[in-house]
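Q: Convert this sequence to structure tokens.
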Amino acid sequence: MSAVVEQIVQARLIVTTHRSALLRVTLRYRADDPLAVRMGFPAEYSLDAGPEPVHTPRSAPEVEWVFARQLLAAGLDLPTGDGDVHVHPAPGQRTMVELRAPEGVALLQFGAPELRRFLRDSYLAVAEGEEYRFLDADRELAELLG
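A:
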């Protein structure tokens, strides 16, 4: 099965307590990688993007973060995360996602209803608890061993 769920949402990148930037984030879920969700960000918001990126309208570059679908789901209701990705609820039906990298930390604010809708659609593609049925152990092992 190659079901893909993709949703474009608006997020607010918190720069300082008085400064933020709106950006489009692409949320992706693939049935062939059933435990993960992906967040794609415009490359110009990357901490290590360097000089202004050059791209054509058809091939706009993006930076992609991949982390556990369960982490995103749990973080809608309770603070969760360990390592590079932390998710927690915020007042006003918002959800905060903190991404940590050697270059720095990015704090993003999402509308919780949009994230819940994305997760609901991902559960229609692969039901929660049924992910093991879609795992390809040989492929996963090959990717790990690179």
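The mean pLDDT is 84.
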